[in-house]
Amino acid sequence: MWLDLQQVVKHFGARRALDGVSFGLAQGEIGCLLGPSGCGKTTALRCIAGLEQPDSGRILSRGRVISDAGVQVPAHERGIGLVFQEHALFPHLTALGNVEFGLHADPKARRRARAEELLDLVGLGDSADSYPAELSGGQQQRVALARALAPRPATVLLDEPFASLDVALRERLVGELRTLLKSLGTTALVVTHDQKDAFALADQIGLMREGRLEQWSTPYDLYHRPVSRFAAEFVGQASFVPACCGGTGLLQTELGPLRDGKRQAACEGTVDVLLRPDDVVHDDGSPLKARIVGRVFRGSEFLYTLELGSGRRVLSVVPSHHDHRVGEMIGIRLDTDHVVTFAPLGEQGR
Q: Dihedrals φ, ψ of 159, to 5°?
């Protein structure tokens, strides 16, 4: 592994901020640590950077131990770049000067050439002589990224890099950042609380909860194959419907029968089936009807909240040319590629 965390633990007083966190990134991969405030994701980033010292566990970079019992490589010797949420640019230096700052050991001509190369890469070659106060938030973010990349670090860490940006700029920069990192072959780890940013940017996502790593997987698997109810509810939007099964693997639900084509494991009793909004399809020809009790217009689509005959509610994403009123009955059917089940609330996981 290019970056490898092994059972990392970190306490702040009585609070355990990291509780045995383990994950790894291969060279050139982009990872994201995702989770609610206080879950430990920024603490993990700071331990990797050398700004915090773990209480136990190991951290390796390119196979070299940088943190372990009796070993704490100083932050400036780890070969790791860091981009903070606030960008932390020097206000008295130009964009070029800020990027050059981390290259002080190089000859002047080489520093300048490398800084100009990075500013061109992030699309700011024409703003080399501008000071931070003269740049927009998105431009400042790109200068900070160029500065972190200038020394050719083994790994770049980014702490909530888009938090202060407006939605439209944020969406554009997320795509640009992924393209840039991939073009350079840079290994990166990003901390974010925004799942849209994580899905658009990452090859691997670590969902954190109360200092523990709940799931480490691809964005696709995190969405479609969550390992816990918390993961299912935190990522995307989730509805749960009860299902009865009698040992055949066929699940009987209020919306019709379901079978997990990959697993088909027999079960007995009742489970809760996870339904994503795209699993519940609007179909005028379906005999199964549901009442619209809420709707959110999203431009290209509506998100309908539907009430079933039992009173239970599910979500459905419908193209926006299907413009139905609240209170209207519409036909629906299930179209599920992934059947994910959890024990009913209050019971042990199955």
A: -100, 105
Structure tokens at 338: 């992934």
117 phi and psi angles, rounded to 5 deg? -60, -45
* pTM reported for the whole predicted model: 0.91
Residue type at 199 in one-letter notation: F
- Please state, in angstroms and rounded to a whole number, the distance separating the CA atoms of residues 150 and 144: 10
CA distance linking residue 292 with residue 22, whole number of Å: 44
Count of CB atoms within 10 A of residue 164's CB?
15
Q: What is the pLDDT of residue 321?
A: 93
CA distance 149 to 156: 7
Report the pLDDT value the prediction gives residue 165, as an integer from 0 to 100.
Answer: 79
pLDDT in tens, 259-302: 755 444 456 678 999 999 999 999 999 999 999 999 999 999 99
Q: What whole-number distance in Å separates Cα of residue 216 and Cα of residue 210? A: 15
Helix axes 167-184, 137-149, angle to 10 degrees: 20
What's the CA angle centered on 135, arms 100 and 28, to 5 degrees?
Answer: 55
Closest CA to 305 of 26, 90, 313: 313
**3-state SS, residue 297:** strand
As a whole number of angstroms, the distance between CA 129 and CA 131 comes to: 7
Starting from the edge strand earliest in sequence, which strands make up the sheet with 30-34, in order? Answer: 80-83, 155-159, 187-192, 30-34, 204-209, 212-217
* Contact in structure between 309 and 254 (CB atoms under 8 Å): yes
Low-confidence ranges of the chain (pLDDT < 50): 262-265, 348-350
CA-to-CA dists, residue 343 to 226, 229, 243, 265, 267, angstroms? 13, 9, 10, 15, 11
